[in-house]
User: Fold these one by one.
Assistant:
Number 1:
Amino acid sequence: MSPPTLHTVQAVTGDDVPRLSSPHDDLNQQIIRLLQDDGRAAYDEIGQKLGVSGGTVRNRVTRMREAGMLHIVAVVDPVAVDYESDAMLGIKVAPGIAPSAVAERLDPYPAVVYVMWVSGRFDLLVELVCDQETELTSFLNQHVHGQSDIAHVEVMTRLGMFKNQFLLKRHLP
């Protein structure tokens, strides 16, 4: 393990974000990476790995959370909990309909775990994860097929899983 590094901290970034709250600060990046691996890791444990005190980690996390830069949430890995059925929907919205309107309509349903506005032949990619195959069929029949705001949908069900990075990690500079 390399010796602890001194971290120089500027008071404010170019965007008037306090440096201690900034995700661009080197120590904050390291804290974020460790929290991405285990969001429940103790601050003392993180501090020990980074060569700083647990109080320093707690203060940094608190500042990033208060600044709206960091949210610690639980994310369920659909493969790990062995859901019965999941599908990716490629949706082409009807003419005159904004993709955001369809996204907002589908958003409240628990089976919908991912909605992305995309370019290409679809307007939206929507991922569904269901406890039972009948739930997937029911969702499609009630909320997708025959809906006036959807011109076309392509339903792609999972045949196998090669990689599932369920917690997306942003590249931090």
Note: Residues 1-74 form a domain with the Arc Repressor Mutant, subunit A fold (CATH 1.10.10.10).
Number 2:
Amino acid sequence: MPRSWVYEHPIGTLDLSVQHLGAHLVVCISGSDVPHIGSVVLATPRPSLSGSGASATSSVLNRIGHKDEFVGRIVAEVLASQLDTVVCCVCGVHKDDASADQIAACAPLGDELAAFLLERIPHNTA
């Protein structure tokens, strides 16, 4: 059964949901003025190339002209590496006539959402 939350951000209200598929996760991030599918990111955990810790490798599908990857990729890769599971993140956030300040506020959004979700997703996803 999916779990869902609302995340308030300067760009608008975002809807977050997480569905477990066995040990894997599907994360959906949508909202603000026009929820949609802008990007799909699939992240797979792996050992860090530095030799210590964990990381993730991801593949991305973007719709033409969409920038949602910049949020979705961070969320997928952080969750995959921290939870040691495959993560698919579907992301679509759009704000009509976004101001420069609202756009700048989106720079750390992927990290903010990843931290928000890590506090709420059990680390034993199996």
Note: The radius of gyration is 14 Å.
Number 3:
Amino acid sequence: MNKSKLDELKSIQSSLEDLHNSQEAIIQKVGQLEVNLMNNPDKEVEEGLTEVYSNASANADLVKELLDKFNMRVEKAEKEYRPAPEEGEEK
């Protein structure tokens, strides 16, 4: 495993984490909207938000699974990574 490949894996890992966090943020925003609708009920919006919440929750779960699996790959790659000796260092 070389540094370039490990850096690529870590970049993908970071993107997956960002994607998961975005899905979690959507879930929180939908929840807040549902609370706000208690003061101004709107059946059509409530029904739509139920579907949005369900989809976002399923996506968050899916991304979390992908992230967990990918984290294992990154951990394995980190264990396999052996940096090249710096110039001037004894081998």
Note: The first helix runs from residue 3 to 37.
